[in-house]
Design brief:
The chain is α/β, with parallel strands linked by helices. It has seven helices and ten strands. The longest helix is centred in the first third of the chain and has 13 residues, at 15-27.
Length: 222
């Protein structure tokens, strides 16, 4: 499928959030040929049966087992071949005010040294948070958080691709490797993507109140 952007969404038995996510992306489209969505189903084989198998904008990729976030992304990368690729959480929502989100993010790649671009949101650490005070709406950052990130595929390969051995922090790791290869990381706060946050992590590991749970002290240290 010869689209400009492949949107990769790993999911794990999360129909309610995924339905909202997919609907918002499709409703916010500005061109029929701009993107294609790949839903990587890490959950029950029938958990994505509600998605139309003949939908021209969505392909469901059955993982057969829970490959995790990075494993799901790697499978999605194998299925797609676009110049740009987006990693997107299934608990995100594109509001109508960000209808031009992909167009705005793509414009930064006119500069060949830009490797990845991230928007702002409500649930995230660092300067991508909507309440973080920044001098400008668009700026270079040392790292991006992968609730939503748009990458140049060739830059991803030059940086060594994804590392499945990591138990977390894949966004920090890849941000460092991109910078080591001379690529810039851009935050564009003109784009806002709503993020419910911690849905799959809490489901798989337990929340921050549980030892070794998602965002717990032990998990952060690991």
């Amino acid at each position: 499928m010869n689209k400009i952007v492949s949107i990769l969404i790993p999911t794990l038995n999360n129909q309610n959030y995924l339905y909202s996510c997919l609907s918002s992306i499709i409703n916010a489209r500005t061109s029929e040929n701009l993107f294609h969505i790949y839903v990587i189903n890490n959950g029950h084989p029938d958990s994505c049966d509600w998605i139309d198998k003949d939908h021209k904008m969505i392909t469901v990729v059955q993982a057969g087992k829970n490959l995790g976030w990075v494993g799901g992304l790697k499978l999605g990368l194998e299925q797609s071949n676009s110049e740009f690729v987006m990693f997107l959480n299934d608990d995100t929502f594109v509001p109508y005010s960000s209808k031009n989100w992909l167009n705005v993010m793509l414009q930064h790649f006119r500069e060949p040294t830009v490797g990845m671009v991230g928007p702002s949101t409500n649930v995230v650490m660092g300067l991508q948070n909507m309440v973080a005070i920044t001098e400008m709406n668009t700026f270079t950052s040392n790292f991006l958080i992968f609730f939503c990130v748009l990458l140049r595929r060739t830059a991803l390969w030059k940086a060594g691709g994804l590392d499945e051995s990591l138990s977390g922090g894949d966004d920090f790791d890849l941000s460092i490797r991109f910078r080591d290869k001379g690529y810039k990381l851009i935050v564009d706060k003109n784009v806002f993507i709503f993020h419910y946050g911690m849905q799959t992590g809490n489901k798989v590991f337990g929340d921050s109140t549980v030892k070794n749970g998602w965002n717990s002290f032990e998990y952060a240290e690991k």
